Amino acid sequence: MNEIENISESLFESVKHINEYGQEYWTARELQPVLEYVQWRRFYETIDKAKEACKTSGGKVSDHFAEVGKMVDVGSGAKREVDDYQLSRYACYLIAMNGDPRKKAIALAQTYFAVKTRQQELIENYERLTEEEKRLAIRQQMKEHNKSLYAAAKDSGVETPVEYAIFTDYGYMGLYGGLKQKDIHRRKGLKKSQRILDHMGSTELAANLFRATQTEEKLRRDNVQGKENANATHYAVGEKVRQTIADLGGTMPEDLPTPEKSIKQIEREQKKKLPN
Question: Do both 80 and 142 map to the same domain?
Fold first, then answer.
């Protein structure tokens, strides 16, 4: 990911919300300054254009632009309600596409929301995807679930970078028959700067996604406390996933082939296909 992509990722992720159903959304009032709109009136005009574009494309406006009220301070402890919207990713994409193209933030938003919207489309149409598209979809889910996994590990007492590295290795050792991250890295013949998850096929990525999601759930469900117990839990879940693969007659993850293209290469190729 280049510098511009890093900026857009952190910029728009910082104001993203997740509701009680696990769905992501942005609020218009928080998105307004991020997109460099000083006046709400001007931003509201852009939202109106985006709503019209949604309607024209056959989308249900209320599904993507949910009208909500927001209380704001007006001084001396007084508050008043102002208009606001809860916006889906697609709504944000339409807003960006109908925004002022002279603003740098708009250009960043167009790239960010176009890529994220495409990733969601891939996930929703998984069965019809090519192998490369499946890899992209699962790798993106891995990024999101790893954040949740490490948050759960932190709650269990895993805190320092070294402790996180050890925690990660325990999960890999359980799934890969004792191999640590560096062993898998070496087995795949990767350079020091290359990440093993970017050089896995869809089947191997899926096994690791299951390991990550099930470990997070078990850490939270069992209220696991202490880094040693967290490590043991990660190992046990990885080992259970490995046993399931064996029971089903599948190929062990360390024996699966390493794809010729990395996730980064595929992402670059996909972005070239996006409309300018």
Answer: no
Burial class from Cβ neighbours inside 10 Å (0-12, 13-18, 19+) for residue 155 reads middle
Report how far residue 204's alpha carbon sits from residue 175's, in angstroms, rounded to the nearest whole number: 10
Interval 184-204: pLDDT, tens = 999 999 998 899 999 999 999
| Residue where a domain stops, chosen among 100, 124, 148 | 124
The CB density around residue 69, as the number of other CB atoms within 10 Å, is 9
Report the distance separating Cα 212 and Cα 220, nearest Å: 13
pTM (predicted TM-score): 0.58
> What is the DSSP pairing of strand 24-27 with strand 17-18?
antiparallel
Residue 9: pLDDT over 70: no
Domain assignment of residue 111, given as a range: 3-124
Give the strands of the sheet with 24-27, arranged side by side.
17-18, 24-27, 78-87, 65-75
Residues 133, 258 within the same domain: yes
For residues 187, 188, 194, 197, the Cα torsion angle rounded to the nearest 10 degrees is -100
